[in-house]
Amino acid sequence: MRADPSTAPLRHDWTLAEIRAVHDLPLLELLHTAQGVHRDHHPKNQVQLCTLLSVKTGACTEDCGYCSQSKHHHTHVEPERLMQVDEVALAARRAKQSGATRFCMGAAWREVRDGQQFERLLDMVRTVKAEGLEACVTAGMLNPDQARRLREAGLDTYNHNLDTSREHYKSIVSTRTYDDRLRTIQVVRDAGMSVCSGGIIGLGETVDDRCRMLRELSQQSPHPESVPINALVPVAGTPLESLPMVDPLELVRMIATARILMPRAQVRLSAGRSSMNREAQLLCLMAGANSIFYGDTLLTTPNPDTSFDRKLIADAGLTPLEPKLG
Ligand code: SAM
Ligand code: DTB
Ligand code: SF4
Description:
By secondary structure, the chain is of the alpha/beta class. The protein has a single domain (15-316), classed as TIM Barrel (Alpha-Beta Barrel). The protein has helices at residues 16-23, 27-41, 85-97, 116-130, 144-152, 166-172, 178-190, 207-219, 248-261, 278-286, 306-315; strands spanning 46-56, 102-107, 134-138, 157-159, 194-196, 199-201, 226-231, 266-269, 291-293, 319-320. Strands 1, 2, 3, 4, 5, 6, 7, 8, 9 and 10 form a ten-stranded parallel sheet that branches. Helix 9 (248-261) links the parallel strand 7 (226-231) and strand 8. The model has no long low-confidence stretch (mean pLDDT 94).
């Protein structure tokens, strides 16, 4: 009799060569394997709708080469102060009415600082939780006390991406280190929140860099509960503005490999859908993606509009994950 795959032990010791071998499988073979793992661990034909809101936009002191919100780059983004809690409450209510079950708030900070703004962020978390939504925040580095207070406010998940391999990271960001990222992820884990950590492809990295990033994530024990895979949205005025668009099939490979390495994680098809056709997006879902961002903008860049996504979901016979009652 076949052992129950959903309770089988997970691996944390994938080698680079093994990951690369999975990643480079013939595409149909890779898709078949990834879809098998997906069905063993997740409901079939389901997609979670997540809403993103930039609660504090721009003027970030970090110099992430891809980001529209760094004060080191001159982009279309006009800095905005931290939003008011009632504005966030309204956005969360709308998100829930439109069918989203997860609400992700982004703040363009290098790190969270104690004080009035942090108190307001905690209130935002309480408001989102009061709507019965999963709540996720991404706001830069955290110390253990801040992580504990976010957890106590009801925060489910903190997002902090590794973005790329340790080796390539230095060419993308100079104002913080890979170890800074790993430290915050550990602080989130120690506070008892779920970890959302993934990366971006299309930053001029090699395929080995992509596989190294997946090795880094899959070595964590437990695996991150949530793994967002972004394709670079090139933003005019950033150092990476002229990089070529990612071939959507490379995103499919990345999602499939993440699915196989981290069978229970929620793998999230994140930035980059605006430049992909429906068929490529469906291949990403076939490869094991659990969710999409739903709403006309991501943080500062466009996302497919909701009518496009509703039609995609209907035509593919997908079921959005049900909002919790109450
Ligand atoms: N300041 C916080 C931090 O450092 O984690 C959070 C905000 S940041 C906008 C969240 C993530 O969005 C980044 O780690 C990156 O992976 C992704 N991201 C940002 N700009 C992007 C772009 N132009 N294209 C694709 N992904 C992007
Ligand atoms: C993640 O990995 N992707 C989301 C979320 N986490 C916060 C953000 C994507 C941002 C895309 C660029 C923008 O809109 O500014
Ligand atoms: Fe700041 Fe986050 Fe953008 Fe980096 S990715 S510049 S830390 S907002």
